[in-house]
Write a structure and sequence with these properties.
- It is built from two helices and no strands.
- By secondary structure, it is mainly α.
- Helix 1 packs antiparallel against helix 2.
- The longest helix has 56 residues.
């Protein structure tokens, strides 16, 4: 249960506000290209951030799935032990 709370907390913190890249018109003072370069770099940063978040979500989903499988396996083992103990009492 603690691990699930930690995973949910991590997800909540990892999903921050993404940058918003807006184009700015180029002028002679920006040499007709600096703003486009800045916009392109901003878009690239957004892509990197989005890709990293997606990878983190996949990793967390895999971790949660593994924890659920482990919990199910532990429940089955517990049931087996309890049934064996009940048989041993008779």
């Amino acid at each position: 249960m603690r691990m699930l709370v930690a995973v949910v907390t991590f997800l909540a913190l990892a999903t921050g506000a993404e940058a918003y890249c807006f184009p700015v018109p180029d002028t002679a003072s920006t040499h007709y290209g600096d703003n486009n370069l800045g916009h392109t770099l901003c878009l690239q940063d957004e892509l990197v951030q989005s890709t990293n978040q997606q990878a983190q979500r996949q990793l967390l989903d895999q971790t949660v799935s593994q924890l659920q499988r482990d919990l199910q396996q532990q429940k089955l083992l517990l049931q087996q032990v309890q049934s064996q103990m009940a048989l041993d009492q008779f």
